Amino acid sequence: KYMGMVNKKSTLYLILFSFFFVTCWSLGYSTLNRYSPDLLMGLSDTAIYYSLVENGLGSIEYDLNNRSNRILVPLIARMIYLCIPTFGTWDPIGHALLITTSVFSSLAALLIFNLSLKMFNNVYLSLIASFLYLTNFIVINWYLVGGVDSAWSLCCIALFYILVEKKYYLLPFLSVLATITKEHFLLFGLLIIFLW
Question: How far apart are CA 158 and CA 164, in angstroms?
Answer without folding.
Answer: 10
